[in-house]
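Re: that chain you flagged

S.,

Sorry for the slow reply, it's been a week of failed gels. I finally had a moment to sit down with the sequence you sent. For the record, here it is as I used it:
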Amino acid sequence: MDGEIINFGWNQFGGWRITVRVDDSTVFYYAHLSKYADGIGKGSKIKKGQVIGFVGNTGYGPEGTEGQFVSHLHFGIYKTDAPSWYTIDPYSYLKWWESNL
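Prediction finished late last night. Pasting the structure tokens below so you have them in one place:
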């Protein structure tokens, strides 16, 4: 989905990560990236299908920690329509996107 990057940079657990607001009550979270695509940063507007980063194995330590686990993408969907953000299971969305794109 199109969106705006609202969080960007290092997180002790998520490593190099990006949080994208896609609507008034939903954000997508991408973590453990190896690096970001050129031109990506906080406040960047992104388009569906645009490369924003690359799969990696960063996180679980101070900035720059990598190699603690196999490379993968941690993807999360958070709803922001409550006082505290809460996660929703992305599986059904991923299956739908896979069969409809």
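What I noticed first: The CA atoms of residues 25 and 82 lie 9 Å apart.

Talk soon,
D.
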